[in-house]
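Running low. Invent one:
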Amino acid sequence: MSAGTILVIAAVVLATSFLSGIFGMAGGMIYMGALLLLLPVPAAMVLHGVTQTASNGWRAFLWRGYVAWPILLRYLIGSALAFAAFSLVRFVPDPALVLVTLGLTPFLAWTVPDRLAPRADRAGGAELCGFIGTAFQLLSGVSGPLLDVFFVRCPLDRRAVVATKAACQVATHLIKLLYFGQIIGGAGDSLGWPVLAVSVALAMAGTSLSRAALERLTDIQFRSWTQRIVLGVGLVYLVQGIAAYAGG
């Protein structure tokens, strides 16, 4: 990997970790799209998984007092079931499918009617969230917007939403690392430890810098800006994915 590529990745990691630290998502979507321009899908999934594990893990630690632990434990059940299903088929998506899935994810999330929207705090909600979230992680590398469907209507403030989603995403990113790094095999061989170490350090730095910004937001501003950002990014990826299929 060239020095220029490493510098680009480093800058994107810092910026997207800062963004994710504020909204609990969006940064991961942008980061995944950037990696697809630079790396094959399996390698992009591994680097994304390492970086996002560090970013979400540090975010969960910073806001650990707000994590809803019962929801997290039930979420892990659904995650384990999705991982088992994908391990049987060993499916690896192509870049165009990843882009289309990235693009559709926020629209699927935000178009679910209130009366049909599941909630993570209700019976079966966290388990379903874990299954769907992990499945979309293995298809596109990102599941934050879908997780938001399960959390946005829960009686949790913005800090509890960010903290609990971060803890849940640590689990799904670790599963993604295991799937693409071990079960698919060889996905991270081209990356090297220096790239992984720099990515982890910058992910933690960006997350730390975002804390003050999150504190200044109100719950209304938090939800409003989250929707605008993820739908805008999703539209860009959807167009790119469709164009890739049309050109292929």
